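In the laboratory, one determines a bound structure by crystallizing the protein with its ligand and collecting diffraction data. In a computational setting the workflow is compressed into a single prediction: the sequence and the ligand go in, and a structural description comes out. We illustrate the idea with sodium ion.
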Amino acid sequence: APIAAKAQDAVEWRMQALWDAGTTPFEFEKKFVERVSELTDGNFKITLFSAGQLVPANQAFDAVRAGAFQLMKTFDGYEAGKIPAFAFTSTIPFGFPESDQYEAWFYEKGGLDLAREAYAKAGLFYIAPTVYGEEPIHSTVKIETIADMAGKKGRFVGLASAVMADQGVSVTPLPTAEVYTALEKGLIDFADRGDLTANYEAGLGEVAKFIILPGVHQPTTATSYVANQGAYDALPDDYKAALAVAAREISGSLRQHIMVQNVDVLKKYGEQGVEITQLDPADVAANRSKAVESWKKATKEDDLANRVLASQIEFMTALGLI
Amino acid sequence: MLSFMKSVSSIVTGVNRLFFLLAAALIFAVVPILLFEVVARYLFDAPTVWAMEASTLIFGPHFMLAGPYLLHLKGHVAVDIFSEKLTGLPKVALDVFSYAVIAVFAGVFAWVSWPLAINAYSLGETSFSAWNPPVWWLKFVVPLSFALLFLQALVEACNATRPAQDQTGASA
Amino acid sequence: MSSEFVLAIMFASLVGLLLTGLPLAFTLGALALVFTITLWGPAALSVTVLNLYSTMTSESLLAIPLYVMMASILQRSGVIESLYRAMELWSRRLPGGLAVGTIAICTIIAAMTGIVGAAVAAMGMLALPSMLKRKYSPELAIGTICAGGTLGILIPPSVITIVYAVTAQASIGQMFIAGVVPGLLLASLYIGYIVLRSALNPSIAPRPDNDAPTTWEERIASLKSLILPLLIIVGVLGTIYMGIATPTEAAAVGVFLAFLSSLIERRFGWELISGVALDVVKVTAMILWITIGARAFVAIFTGTGGADFLLSFIQDLDANRWIVLAIMLGILFFLGMFLDEMGIILLCVPVFLPVIDFLEFDRLWFGILFLVSAQMAYISPPFGYTLFYMKGVLPAGIGMGTVYRAIVPFILLQAIGIFICALFPELVLWLPQSMIN
Ligand code: NA
Ligand code: NA
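The predicted complex, in structure-token form:
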């Protein structure tokens, strides 16, 4: 077993973020790194790289496993094709409508342990999630109910593509880079892409005159801080605590920042002439029950995935969501 | 011994030529697949979940598996400003050096990519798209291509030391 | 290890190894291995391989084999040769007429794809044999194609523009529109240069031997050869701009139409198909193996902070805003000499944009200057990727030295283009602003 370093020992790690440099969430990764340094008297230094700088964001998992860098911010869903449980620890289409509920599942309902179990298999240590709200749906046609989406061409990825297909959407898997042009040219009717601010900056308001909220395909999102197990084990306890504390702080502060930012950006969309459609919560709830069947298919009968889903369904039922 | 070397070298080159031709044929499949997608989506409002993904799954093996034989064809582009002026021993030495570098590069890439492929296989990796096909096999294309390149580089290094008329002609 | 040292040693070893005649793909890949092991240790080697999987499944790079296929079919079925014959008939009074026509075709292809490898390889196969056959100087022909082939970066659609826009948080649509006028400006600069050079020195672009004036019947008859290429252009551009297909899918439509053309020309058959298959696999594998090496090299260069001191130099620079701008563009050009465009964008945009904001320059306008610089990087020796793609489709006997000589005037034209765009921002901003209002 590696000998734990002494608290005053200098440790240098490399971390690749999930976000492009300059974006809001990337600024919060900078804060994370600064906070960890601050909590360890400047002894734990993490060099931050933006998405794709070292490896493509969806390949970071294997890079951290191999020890190419020690820490990543990732989206568990990238690896759901390997470990089915990750389908539910990143975002659940038609799942928890409130970020607090999803975060509570992690911290209060054993979600953290389940996520750690999933990552442990790969020699990785799951530190903590950053939980925040929805990603919107941008549409070129007016959609007022979930039933309106049926038969229309929508761009979704990951579990959302399967769930939305089961809701009757003609799912068209396009790369993120194609979304703007595909909406503009009418190749597709509606699409998911990023959060409200990122999509505003990419100009989606210019080409899609309707926004549908809540983004039922991704009502809440959890991205994860994940470390190489060996590197993590070698840390002194107070460095480990610093990671956990900073992670939990960032989760709350990014979420609140997005909440404030959304108010401003929705106003800007309004100035562009974009119309915001709010789906009826009863409509969403009714289709959530339908989505449960799609979720179950995604477990691929994997034991851990089944346990994760069962735990989430139990909590959703207790909350009266199902 | 020499004839043994020669037959090993022609087996390696022959196998790589087969992969090259297979790779060349593969890419034609992309055209009807993408046309089908365009027609299905535009005329019938029924986009497929598989067409674009299937095309990209063909794309990787297409260029990866063609790489080793392309070395034999001298199709990997180089700066020839100085090397084209060399003859005799210096040229042989430089050629052997180049192929040795390529062999090391290919060997290390094959070695690094192998456990990633094994891991993808043992987890039965799928793409997790709406179509969700198995994709672990794609990760084996990488070490396979690099291993074949490794062998081809060794063969070319040997060929470079032999007089020109002894070498098999470079033709596809 | 200090950033200056990393930069110097990586640059020097890249140049040194390349000059031994080791192919570019393996030069980049082998250096990525050596630097990863020495700077980060063997555990980090997976970085070099992991970049490969997303190259293997890239939807936008899939355009490369498709455009090469289209070009190869058209070349082998004689469609392009008749097109150049028609251009010859119609442009006999215009010095360097065929090179001018080539730039026009490049501009059209630029509106179909933003993947430079696809455009350059396709144009190399299409235009080069026809120009060389008519005794155009290899330098003029090669320079024309390399420069023209990069126009796709500025003229939409363009993947690099999208990457820039996303990294800079600019509207993709506005960036696209802003690229149109500068793209056409560059095309005009190329044309002006070609005409001038050819008028001054007719031996580099000889006029047709036959001095007998062609009759109008002959000329009109030659227009028939435009029908098939036009059909393909309309087919590809139409499917993209009417929202029928993505650019990659539209390339497949183009291949289908090219096959139809070969049927009409009665050239369709096993000979054509096998020839096309070999063209496609050779060119695609050549380009993509370079991409593999480049992605690995850029990752380790970025990771070890090779450009850090250049970037922090800009951040701390306290000088006249135009000087700062000029230095920024100079850094882009320098890094572009050995990094790929994605690497440059990921490295520089986040550092440069706050400086641009501080100096109160327009972000959209800077974006275009940035993209023209990236375009310049694509054709700048020693590593301009375009030059290697071009070399890959050259006939035997033309070496890299010719390609390097060929490109120099066009790099200067690019520099003039940047200068004009910098001096007259309205050239860049007028179109996007008038589209909004
Ligand atoms: Na373009
Ligand atoms: Na360059």
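The two ends of chain A are 46 Å apart (CA to CA). Keep in mind that any predicted model is a hypothesis to be tested, not a measurement.
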